[in-house]
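#help-structures
NK: newbie question, is this the right format to request a structure? protein is C-deglycosylation enzyme beta subunit
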Amino acid sequence: MFDNKMIVEDSLKATADGFSIEARLPYYRGLGLSMIEDVGVSVDGEPVPREAVTLSLRGRTWTLDEMETEYGDRWNFGEKAVVGVKVPGGLAPGEHRIGLSERMRVSYLPFVPTAKDEKVLTLAE
């Protein structure tokens, strides 16, 4: 797996209701969105609630609950998705340690792998 390539460098951006990062799927074949069981985010060591996270690909956005039943779309290997995070009051400018985990259901594995990446990213003022 390509865990250390999940978070795209220099992709931290402020949004109207929080922040976003760009992320890659570390599984070499890509997966249907319903096979991605969870996308976890932490900021400076604090986990973000699941309901505050969205994933956007090719102009479409899903909550993590909506992804569970999305059978017609997939996240391809190397493709950059935007992970949106709602944070009341936004995120302060400066450096932040961003953690990302992706739990995937892979048909031929007898377990559900969780890939993790963590990087220090800077939010511009």
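mod (FA): yep, format's fine, and the tokens are attached above. Residues 64-67 form the longest helix (4 residues).
NK: thank you!
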